[in-house]
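Support request, priority: normal
Reporter: lab tech (M.K.)
Component: structure prediction queue

Hi team, I submitted a job for Domain of unknown function WSN domain-containing protein from Caenorhabditis remanei yesterday, and the status page still shows it as pending. I've pasted the exact input below so you can check whether something in the sequence is tripping the parser. The sequence length should be 362 residues. Please let me know if I need to resubmit or if it's stuck on your end.
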Amino acid sequence: MKLLLLVLLVATTQPLPIRSRDSEDALYPFRRVYRNANDSNLRAYRNAGDKLKSSLEHLKMIARVTNGIYLQHALASGSIPADKLISELLHFGNVTPAQIAGIEMSKMQKSVEMLKALPGSLLNPNPDVADIELTLDTIQEILGAIDGLGDVGERPRAKEFDALMTNLSKTDIGIQVAADFEAGRDLWSGAHKIMKSATALHEAQTHFPYIISVANIIKTSLPRLQTTLPLWKYKEFKSAAEGLAPTMRLVDAINTTDENINNLARTTKQWTAYSEYLNGFLSQLNSMRSSQSQFQNVHDLLMARKSARSRLVEHVAGFSDGVSDIVSISVDLADPWMKSVVKSDELATALNGLKSLESKNA
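Reply from support: The job had stalled in the queue. We restarted it manually and it finished. Here are the results:
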């Protein structure tokens, strides 16, 4: 009985058209062709309205009658599922009447109220819950620092890096530019000291060559360094920085652990309080989840009713206005133009059974 009342109620509520057939913009997709036309073409367009409307009505008649013939045969053979036919006629989309009848409004309203109250329920005043959240944040930070390092029980690429360090420790590296700077440092310092304290010009002049010598070292140091570097070539690593990077990341993780070591030690009582907090939250989610399919059905139903002109149908393509088009079939067959096409009353008699289709399917 509940399903019958619901189907009859929806049947009396037809979807609103996107544009009225008699509105100014009803034929907008065609009118834009004439935007740049001359006045005579515009007059011709305006005068063609009644004729075009009549042709469209005739096409709709043919569509309704043709679909009615198909429907009569399919219903007789039982090839159309009743739920699917009702959904297409009443513009329910993929939602079946049984699914609509199964919607529990009180249950959905309760889920909505729980969802609204959910943010407030997450604010738990228990300090144990806050402490556990801090611990979890610390653990997440540590895991982020060592992500991708593999087994942190060993220093990443430890053998390769240790071999590189051992090789460097046994290799004498001489930088001539640095040696020249070291040799000229005493000359520069001595000459600079004497020149600052000299009282006569000739005392300072004797030390100018030392200053010039060190200045030449400085002048030529950059080009010489560019030809000297790199001091060694890496095989296992592109650079020393690459070799040190995994170890430095591990050091950062160790420092984070050391700085927050107190946050990692929690009691059983604190973990129990947090477990109870999570269980309460999950219980609320499970209660709302039981209504998820009903919310989805309501959403699908509303979207189907909203987009009346863009629906994909399988069995009622000729009934653009849904169930009311079935009632119009008898009127179509009594139309003089349709009679001139059919030239028989037998079709009207054959399709007479469709008049009561609405109540039968309900």
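DSSP finds 20 helices and no strands in the chain. Residues 14 and 209 are 106 Å apart (CA to CA). Let us know if anything else looks off. Ticket resolved.
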